[in-house]
Design goal:
It contains one helix and 32 strands. The chain has one domain: YVTN repeat-like/Quinoprotein amine dehydrogenase (Methylamine Dehydrogenase, Chain H, 7 Propeller). A hairpin with a 2-residue loop joins strand 26 and strand 27. The chain has a four-stranded antiparallel beta sheet, with no helix packed on it. The protein has a four-stranded antiparallel beta sheet with strand order 2-3-4-5, with no helix packed on it. The chain is globular. With 380 residues, it is mainly beta.
Length: 380
């Protein structure tokens, strides 16, 4: 089975942009433009989290539960910190290549490894509760409803584990695409369903207790003569808002699905290998080209598009107060107005880049840079 490296994935994304402009040269990332700063990000604290994301296109994201913030690095260092002070509450060194994480909730901190393991730590002490083998690379955070932990592997398998002891409850197998982007999104887990996006451009929902399929919906149809052109991975994860599931594929579609039935509510053309965010009745999207868009979730019309960050390898967006926050390959965190997409603020977090989605909890934003720099911000 062929798999893409980070470099190939980005080359294809740039190629798509270059071809659309009839250019034979690889275009560099857009230069940052000046603007009048309207809001300011105030740094409250910062901390180093080991070696950070590593060099294999990991997107180790942050997680929170109560007053605690959790982060992990590629070498297996896991930190629990007080969200408002940054004080380390506990530290665990797993000495394993962590590639999927961090998931947190119901008293557990959940991580996946390149060696096909899922590890559960006690969220209050860092004590290892259990570990389970799942037989494939885990490139996104496991998710749980308190009873079942659901993990997706790189080869498009969904596995349900008992949240108490890690015992395997069920496994759902699907056939991955011939070529895929390196990565998967985290599953969405409810009391009834476990939902995941696949490399085939499909979304699958299974019964969370038994792993039996409930519905399947194709979001994007592979098109083109080459396998590169036919890649329609769902890598950015799924967003659940109310009873609506939002999903975006690479070289395909942005879609809204009814959670219970999988019925498409609307679709529009899009291409992204990161996820989406929601706020003010809108959906916010970082396109593979580097443009950021605001889309009305009722009419599906584009409210605004900001193309000034072209080819800057944007992170998934996050809604922060009345702004949309995205990171880029040079480690800048950009704030755009939810109303019209104009730039309102900017700060550099980590010169090695900002790949992981910013985490917003209340009035706080946490940014985790590629080199391991973790910074907590509030707005002035």
């Amino acid at each position: 089975m062929m798999r893409w490296t980070h470099a190939v994935m980005l080359a294809a994304a740039v190629l798509a942009v270059g071809c659309s402009s009839n250019s034979t040269k690889e275009l560099p990332p857009a230069e940052l433009t000046k603007f009048s700063e309207e809001v300011r990000l105030d740094k409250q604290w910062s901390r180093s989290v080991g070696t950070g994301q590593g060099e294999t296109w990991n997107q180790l994201e942050l997680a929170s539960e109560g007053d605690s913030l959790f982060a992990a690095d590629i070498e297996g260092l896991v930190l629990a910190m007080n969200r408002e002070t940054g004080k380390v509450l506990w530290k665990q060194e797993l000495d394993l290549p962590v590639s999927g994480g961090v998931g947190a909730g119901y008293g557990l901190v959940l991580l996946g490894t390149l060696k096909g393991e899922v590890i559960a730590l006690d969220s209050s002490s860092g004590e290892e509760k259990w570990r389970a083998r799942v037989g494939g690379e885990v490139l996104s955070a496991p998710a749980s409803n308190g009873n079942v932990v659901v993990v997706q592997t790189q080869d498009d398998r969904l596995i349900g584990l008992d949240a108490y002891d890690g015992r395997q409850l069920w496994r759902y197998d699907s056939t991955p695409a011939v070529l895929t982007l390196r990565g998967t999104g985290s599953p969405v887990v409810t009391n009834r369903l476990a939902v995941a996006g696949l490399s085939s451009g499909k979304v699958i929902a299974v019964d969370v207790e038994r792993g039996i399929p409930v519905w399947e919906q194709r979001v994007a149809v592979p098109k083109g003569r080459s396998e590169l052109e036919r890649i329609v991975d769902i890598d950015g994860g799924l967003l659940l808002s109310g009873g609506t599931l939002y999903v975006v594929t690479y070289q395909g579609q942005l879609a809204a699905l009814d959670l219970q039935s999988g019925r498409p509510l609307w679709q529009r053309q899009a291409s992204s290998y990161v996820g989406v965010a929601a706020g003010f009745g809108n959906i916010y999207l970082s396109q593979a080209s580097g443009s950021v868009e605001g889309i009305d979730e009722r009419s599906t019309s584009a409210l605004w598009s900001n193309d000034a960050l072209a080819r800057r390898q944007l992170s998934s967006p996050a809604v922060f107060s009345s702004n949309v926050a995205v990171g880029d390959l040079e480690g800048y965190l950009h704030l755009l107005s939810q109303v019209d997409g104009r730039f309102v603020g900017r700060v550099r977090v980590d010169s090695d880049g900002l790949r992981a989605r910013p985490l917003v909890v209340g009035d706080w934003l946490y940014a985790y840079g590629n080199s391991g720099k973790l910074v907590a911000y509030t707005l002035r």
